[in-house]
């Protein structure tokens, strides 16, 4: 490892020793801008979390590519992160196991005391340098499974589970200085000025919600809604707290992104970082089961088991706003308050 520059984490100098587990020294290939690493978010998983960050590579070995619930013929051999791009966008990486039997890999990997996922690469840092000092850094987090939550506290009203879960933060830098940070949450998210979010040293703190892994800037309970389904406030909640600390930088791939060619280049020049998986446009989990499948339940038109998500390339990596362009207003929040108080946040 001596050929990588070792940089100490400023956070450990600033925060009281009791506040955080001791952070490890990070490793990153040469060429990743220092500020992208220095300001990288730290993630608190929920104390009761059952579905942990997961090895991106293992998702491929634990699934088979299917289209319309049928295995795809003549797939690349081996099918791995270097050959995933040979699959079409209609493909669903479908669990080899019955997920209702809770196979161990769905639960992700245990973190060590420093917040590292050992022997598992669970995150990807993607840097879009737009020139003139304007850089958007995406911190992509991977979980093998998303547990969707329950409605109104009724255990049988449980939906929105899916295999595969990509979440992210994006930090917008201007000449190496962080300006704004985006937190992905369900179909949308929240943007804040960097200066107002909670930090450990320089690094923004992120609260990953129980099961759904939606990313919040503050801990506690967050109401959230489902698109096209109006539920009274409090009926569907995300729970966050200072459970286990995850430092995604300790087990991450690093890439630069070029919008003109929609292309990714690993910073690591040794050839050990896979890149072709970023060009896979299909889904990272099972297709929504039909209601004829015994496992499926539909309540209010919402499936208990939904389809898996698309990957990092589908997160609008060349966005003009801090928020993705999705028809919703992009509020750049200047004070740290719960989302419900949205009108106060401008
Ligand atoms: C957290 O998620 C687990 C399933 O992963 C669930 O059993 C538990 O009830 C959830 N806790 C809260 C507070 O929602
Ligand atoms: C990327 O974004 C920049 C700035 O918003 C824009 O000028 C450029 O045309 C975009 N590139 C592509 C390929 O869309």
Observed structural traits:
346 residues; single chain; 5-stranded mixed beta sheet; binds 2-acetamido-2-deoxy-beta-D-glucopyranose; disordered N terminus; mainly beta
Description:
The chain is globular. The model is unreliable at 1-18 and 342-346 (pLDDT under 50). Helix content is 4%, strand content 32%. The chain is mostly beta strands and 346 residues long. An 8-stranded mixed sheet has the order 21-20-7-8-11-12-13-24, with no helix packed on it. Strands 3, 14, 15, 16 and 19 form a 5-stranded mixed sheet that branches. A hairpin with a 2-residue loop joins β22 (298-299) and β23 (302-303). It has one domain (34-345). One 2-acetamido-2-deoxy-beta-D-glucopyranose (NAG) is lined by residues 48, 50-51, 147, 210-211, 239.
Which helices and strands occur, and which strands form pairs?
Elements: E1 6-7, H1 11-14, E2 26-27, H2 34-38, E3 42-45, H3 56-61, E4 63-67, E5 70-71, E6 92-95, E7 123-129, E8 134-146, E9 150-151, E10 154-158, E11 162-174, E12 177-185, E13 188-193, E14 199-200, E15 203-208, E16 215-216, E17 220-223, E18 237-240, E19 245-246, E20 252-258, E21 263-266, E22 298-299, E23 302-303, E24 332-333
Parallel strand pairs: 3-15, 7-20, 13-24
Antiparallel strand pairs: 1-2, 3-19, 4-5, 4-6, 7-8, 8-11, 9-10, 11-12, 12-13, 14-15, 15-16, 17-18, 20-21, 22-23
Bound molecules: 2-acetamido-2-deoxy-beta-D-glucopyranose (NAG) (2 copies).
One 2-acetamido-2-deoxy-beta-D-glucopyranose is lined by residues 48, 50-51, 147, 210-211, 239.
Secondary structure tally: strands? 24
Order of helices and strands: EHEHEHEEEEEEEEEEEEEEEEEEEEE
List ligands, each type once.
2-acetamido-2-deoxy-beta-D-glucopyranose
Give the CA-based shape. globular
N/C terminus separation? 46 Å
Q: Please state the average pLDDT score.
A: 89
Percent of residues in beta strands? 25-35%
């Amino acid at each position: 490892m001596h050929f990588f520059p070792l940089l100490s984490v400023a956070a450990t100098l600033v925060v009281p020793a009791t506040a955080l587990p001791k952070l490890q020294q990070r490793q990153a290939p040469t060429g990743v801008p220092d500020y992208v690493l220095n300001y990288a978010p730290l993630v608190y998983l929920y104390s009761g979390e059952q579905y942990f960050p997961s090895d991106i590579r293992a998702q491929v070995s634990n699934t088979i590519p299917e289209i319309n619930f049928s295995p795809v013929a003549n797939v690349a051999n081996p099918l791995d992160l270097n050959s995933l791009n040979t699959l079409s966008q209609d493909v669903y990486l479908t669990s080899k196991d019955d997920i209702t039997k809770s196979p161990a890999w769905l639960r992700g990997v245990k973190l060590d005391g420093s917040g590292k996922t050992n022997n598992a690469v669970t995150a990807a840092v993607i840097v879009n340098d737009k020139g003139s000092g304007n850089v958007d850094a995406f911190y992509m987090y991977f979980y093998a499974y998303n547990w969707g939550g329950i409605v109104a506290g009724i255990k049988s009203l449980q939906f929105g589970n899916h295999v595969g879960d990509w979440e992210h933060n994006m930090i917008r830098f201007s000449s190496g200085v962080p300006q704004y940070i985006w937190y992905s949450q369900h179909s949308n998210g929240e943007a804040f000025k960097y200066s107002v979010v909670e930090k450990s040293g320089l690094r923004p703190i992120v609260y990953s919600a129980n099961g759904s892994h939606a990313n919040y800037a503050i801990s506690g309970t967050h109401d959230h809604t489902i698109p096209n389904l109006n539920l009274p406030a409090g009926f569907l909640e995300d729970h966050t707290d200072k459970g286990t600390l995850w430092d995604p930088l300790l087990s991450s791939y690093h890439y630069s992104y070029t919008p003109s060619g929609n292309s990714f280049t690993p910073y690591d020049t040794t050839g050990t970082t896979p890149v072709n998986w970023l060009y896979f446009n299909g889904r990272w989990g099972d297709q929504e089961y039909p209601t004829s499948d015994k496992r499926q339940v539909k309540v209010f038109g919402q499936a208990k088991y939904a389809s898996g998500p698309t990957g990092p390339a589908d997160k609008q990596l060349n966005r003009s706003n801090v928020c993705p362009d999705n028809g919703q207003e992009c509020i750049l929040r200047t004070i740290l308050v719960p989302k419900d108080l949205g009108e106060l946040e401008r």
